[in-house]
Structure formats: structure tokens, C-alpha cells
Design brief:
Distance between the termini: 43 Å
Strand content: under 5%
Largest sheet: none
Helix content: over 70%
Structural class: mainly alpha
Number of helices: 10
Order of helices and strands: HHHHHHHHHH
Radius of gyration: 19 Å
């Protein structure tokens, strides 16, 4: 993407994109959007119920939330297209050695296993934090645990993929690009410093955004709730950022998928 971070771990999917032309990337994105649109059509009843039905089926959003949701979706698609098509760098021949099919599958398997383990540990940590914080959280927020009883696997998986794309394309990658331009004025900009700053700042921004969103949806402006959401979101975002920069895109996606599935399962069982 940017020269100062061109030596980071490149995922297999990104390596494929680097070997595609701009037109091929556009076609790939179009196909991905069509597939996502088909999934949304299949799940439209569950999605509408989750968003606009009252408890215990959904979070009970009003019509005033429709415009912001559409704006966020369009922003995510635009950022994904920009960073996935226009800002995709060509890899140098030395950045990824040619490997056999079995070697690629072995590397992908290792990446997915690493991401799954990281997502599992993050979900367990966040669940423990919730257990500790539960007595101090407002009841107006805790009553939303009823929604987990009506969620299905497809909706949870869709949420995991969309939230990962939203975080990477709208928060992390734009911030990375901005910080790289600001650090040009330094004599020897450090790749590690840039990556660390990107992960920290994007995690803080996302956690504040999530805290504000939860407060608006639940109509609960509690200091304890805001602190709890900020901590949970910052931990999750940091984990996804670390995986993206140091392992690969696939690891970040599978980690968020495992995280969402496990958290939903634990909430369904114990709440």
C-alpha cells in the first residue's frame, strides 16, 4: 500500500490482488459485492429483525438510523475499493517466493489456524472482562443479551466479515496512509513506529465510535458502560490490527469470525 510499510507480511489474497490488473480487481470487487448482495437478500428478514425489531428479537433501531447505516456501508465500500484496487502495490520478486500448490495451502492453513487461536484468546479475554464488569453495567444495556437467543450462524458470520472490512477500510488503512505522509518529514521514519501508531490510534478511534454507537442505540449514557465498550473494542481492534500487519488479511478475518462466534455462543449459554 505505502512504501514505508511495503515490507510487512503480505497475505496470500493480497498477493493475488497484486498480480491482477486494475480491471481485474474491479471485476473481483464487483463479484464480491454481488455475492454479498445475494447473501443479504437471503438474510434480509433476519437482518431487518435484528436491526429494527424491539427486544428480545432486535436492537430496535428507528428510521432515523437508516441514513447513517447507508452512509457507513457506502463509505466502507468506497474505502475498500480504493485500497483494494487503486492503492494495491505490485510486489517485488523478492517479497514472495514462488511456491508450489501444497506450499501455498500449507501457508494458508497455518495463517488461518494462527488467526483462529488469536480470535479464541481475544474472545476469552473479553468475556472475562465482561464477567468482571457485569455488576457495574446498567441494566438498560444488559437487557440486550436477549438478542443473542435469536441470532443465527449466517448472520453472525456476515457481521464478522462486515465489521472486519469496516475497521480495516474505514479506520486503519486511511489512518495508515495519513500517518505515513505525516512521517515523511522525519529523517528516518520507522516502519515499526508507524505500524504501532496506526494500530493504537485506529483502535482508540474505533473504540470511541463503538462506545458512542452503543450509547445511542441503548439510550444509556453511563460512564461505566462507555469505559467497558472502549476497553473491549480497543482490545479487539488491536488484535485484528496486529494480525493484519504481522500475519495477513486472512488471519485477521478468521480471528474476527471466531471471536464473534464464540462471544455469541457464550452469551447465548450464560446470559
Amino acid at each position: 500500500m505505502i512504501e514505508s510499510q511495503s515490507n510487512r507480511q503480505i497475505s496470500l489474497f493480497e498477493a493475488v490482488l497484486n498480480n491482477y490488473s486494475t480491471l481485474q480487481r474491479c471485476l473481483l470487487l464487483t463479484c464480491a459485492l454481488l455475492v454479498m448482495g445475494a447473501v443479504l437478500c437471503v438474510e434480509q428478514t433476519n437482518i431487518a429483525s435484528f436491526l429494527f425489531s424491539n427486544l428480545p428479537l432486535g436492537i430496535g433501531l428507528t428510521n432515523s438510523f437508516i441514513a447513517p447505516l447507508i452512509a457507513i456501508v457506502l463509505l466502507a465500500i468506497s474505502c475498500t475499493a480504493y485500497f483494494g484496487i487503486i492503492c494495491t502495490d505490485k510486489l517485488s520478486p523478492s517479497s514472495r517466493q514462488a511456491t508450489s500448490g501444497s506450499g501455498i495451502l500449507s501457508e494458508l492453513r497455518l495463517t488461518l489456524v494462527f488467526g483462529a487461536c488469536f480470535g479464541l484468546l481475544t474472545a476469552i479475554l473479553c468475556s472475562l472482562i465482561f464477567v468482571i464488569a457485569e455488576p457495574h453495567l446498567p441494566q438498560a444495556f444488559l437487557q440486550y443479551h436477549q438478542i443473542f437467543n435469536s441470532l443465527d450462524l449466517m448472520l453472525i458470520a456476515l457481521t464478522a466479515v462486515l465489521t472486519s472490512a469496516l475497521y480495516l477500510s474505514v479506520f486503519m488503512l486511511p489512518l495508515s496512509s495519513l500517518l505515513s505522509k505525516l512521517m515523511v518529514f522525519e529523517n528516518k521514519p520507522s516502519k515499526l513506529k508507524l505500524t504501532t501508531n496506526t494500530i493504537i490510534i485506529s483502535s482508540i478511534v474505533l473504540s470511541l465510535f463503538m462506545a458512542l454507537s452503543v450509547a445511542l442505540v441503548t439510550s444509556t449514557f453511563s460512564i461505566n458502560l462507555i469505559v467497558f465498550i472502549v476497553i473491549i473494542s480497543a482490545i479487539t481492534a488491536s488484535a485484528l490490527g496486529l494480525l493484519y500487519w504481522f500475519v495477513g488479511l486472512e488471519a485477521s478475518l478468521i480471528a474476527n469470525l471466531v471471536y464473534c462466534l464464540l462471544v455469541s455462543y457464550l452469551a447465548h449459554i450464560f446470559l
